[in-house]
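note to self — DONT lose this again. spent like an hour looking for the file last time. sequence + predicted structure for the chain T wanted, 163 res
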Amino acid sequence: TQTTHNPSNFIFKQKSCCANTQDKPKNITINYKELFKESLKNYKKLLPYIVVAVFIGAFIHGFIPQEILQKYLNGNEILSIVLAAFLGIFLYLRVETIIPIGLALLQMGISQGVIMSFLIAGAGCSLPELILLKQMFKIKFLFLFVMIILGVAISFGIFINLI
């Protein structure tokens, strides 16, 4: 006898090496059509924020004169590091774009600590990411998450400038 399986539904039985789950077997069914629909719905919610973040990044890259960036990001080192970390949080930085952005900032004469603070904050947290996480976590957790990312970015930026 040949059995056919519906590729859109799979049933997984939960097992655990650390707890006794065999008394109550639970089945998890994955419906790929519903999963795809839910993914599209989340994508539609997130798309406007990604577009805005990309436009902000393009605006900074193409329209803000180099002198303005140098003025605000090369003045008071601590203030510049904090400003760069906050700016990084609000931009949508992809991992693939971090190195070119960092090199462009370095060529503008911006200090390595400011650049690292900006890149760590941007890679660690972004506005679209926070919007997605808000669906799963309370606002207190998101605030703590942002504060930890900012703390790490600022601390590392200061540390880099001390070296």
